[in-house]
Write a structure and sequence with these properties.
The structure holds 2 protein chains of 2 kinds. Helix content of chain A is 46%, strand content 12%. Chain A has a 4-stranded mixed sheet. Chain A is elongated. The N and C termini of chain A lie far apart (116 Å). The relative contact order of chain A is 0.12. Chain B is mostly helical. In chain B, α1 crosses α3 and α2 crosses α3. Chain B starts with 12 loop residues before the first helix and ends with a helix. Classes of the chains: A alpha+beta, B mainly alpha. Chains A and B meet through α1 and α2 of A and α1, α2, α5, α6 and α8 of B.
């Protein structure tokens, strides 16, 4: 008499189990391997030692990377006030280098021929200013305190550099608008370094085509 | 061997317990894993790794059946998670020599039994695991469900599908 296929399979599985029972024995080497591994894990204090050494190394590196008193503060993270102050000073310096005739008039949206030479002088100049730790209203202060006070006709074009930091690409001639929106959009308050760079040529002056 | 370890202070109690568990349970675990993976060397690697992981995960250890289940679960999870594919590379990295034993085992199977073993190893891992736990660990549906962390109905489904798959495979060749 035969049962169902499943009954038959059940019987064959039990038969297989009986056939293997006690026949698969660990090799002596396996116990040695386990014990050896336990020894290594039990006696290992090297992870703790390694962790301590790594911590010491990190501390040493951090300390050595700290700028000394004679070094520029540019790599330090600063407060908002320090950032705004530094930004203001840099903008003042920039503007002060422009001779009066080079400065565009308020509301002048396009540089004139006399302004191009000045812009060329400022091309590729990079100013690194430490970013603030907290500056939710940085752009507003920047606009009000730093730039607007000195040149109402300058606007910074902001972009992100390769490291995701906001980067001022160029000074434009348009009136100073939307600074707060631009800087806030790029998370200025989170950046460490704000790079001001006059990298691009200004909008080309269309030569007169009049005969 | 244990007395040699740890110098005068002796091995920690945890290690002693684990070695004792090895002595009482490694053979059963190895047998199950051999049925599951079909290769003794791989099964031994799985047993080894399972014991090491238990040791690593549990600083407090008390001998008991709970640890058998934990070892089983760990070993089967390793087997199902691709540990077998890593074993070859692992052996090259290990400072110890590969297991001295031959991959063959002392089991002499009839052709009929070999067919069943082959059909079993063709099943999906979960179905295979349920069948191995049922037949080689004598676990009931609820115990298998507890060990696998799945419902009893899922266990029944895996068993039913696994048995049906084996039946189809065996019927094809009989």
């Amino acid at each position: 008499m035969t049962g169902t296929p499943i009954d038959d399979l059940d019987r064959r599985l039990r038969d297989l189990r009986l056939a293997t029972s006690g026949k698969v024995r660990p090799s002596p080497a396996l116990l040695a391997r386990v014990e050896s591994s336990l020894d290594r894990r039990t006696s290992r204090h090297w992870p703790q030692a390694l962790a301590v050494a790594a911590l010491i190394l990190v501390v040493v590196v951090v300390v050595r990377l700290q700028p000394g008193p004679e070094e520029t503060v540019a790599t330090r993270r600063t407060t908002r006030e320090a950032f705004v102050s530094a930004m203001s000073a840099s903008c003042r310096d920039l503007v002060s280098e422009w001779v009066p005739g080079e400065l565009p008039a308020v509301g002048q949206n396009r540089p004139g021929p006399d302004h191009r030479a000045a812009l060329e002088r400022f091309r590729d100049r990079v100013i690194s200013i430490p970013g603030p730790e907290d500056a939710p209203d940085l752009a507003e202060k920047l606009q009000r305190d730093a730039i607007a006070a000195h040149s109402a006709s300058l606007t910074l074009a902001v972009s992100l550099d390769a490291h995701g930091r906001p980067q001022v690409l160029r000074l434009m001639w348009q009136p100073l608008l939307r600074m707060s929106t631009a800087l806030a959009a790029y998370g200025v308050e989170e950046c460490r370094d704000l790079t001001v760079r006059l990298a691009d040529k200004p909008s080309p002056v269309r030569p007169s085509t009049a005969p | 061997m244990s007395a040699d370890r740890g110098g005068s202070s002796g091995p920690p109690p945890f290690d002693e317990e684990l070695i004792e568990l090895y002595r009482t349970y490694a053979a059963d675990l190895l047998e199950m894993l051999w049925v599951f993976v079909g290769d003794k060397a791989t099964a031994e690697d799985l047993v080894h790794e399972a014991f090491i992981r238990v040791h690593r995960a549990h600083p407090a250890f008390e001998h008991g059946d709970r640890w058998r289940a934990y070892l089983r679960t760990t070993a089967f999870n390793l087997a199902r998670s691709g540990f077998r594919r890593q074993v070859v590379a692992l052996r090259y990295r290990q400072s110890q020599a590969p297991p001295a034993s031959s991959p063959e085992v002392d089991v002499v199977l009839t052709e009929n039994q070999q067919e069943v073993a082959r059909a079993l190893r063709k099943l999906p891992a979960r179905q295979r695991q349920c069948i191995v736990l049922r037949y080689w660990s004598d676990l009931g549906d609820h115990e298998v469900a507890d060990e696998l962390g799945i419902s009893v109905n899922s266990v029944k489904t895996h068993l039913r599908r696994g048995m049906a798959g084996m039946e189809r495979d065996l019927g094809r060749w009989s």
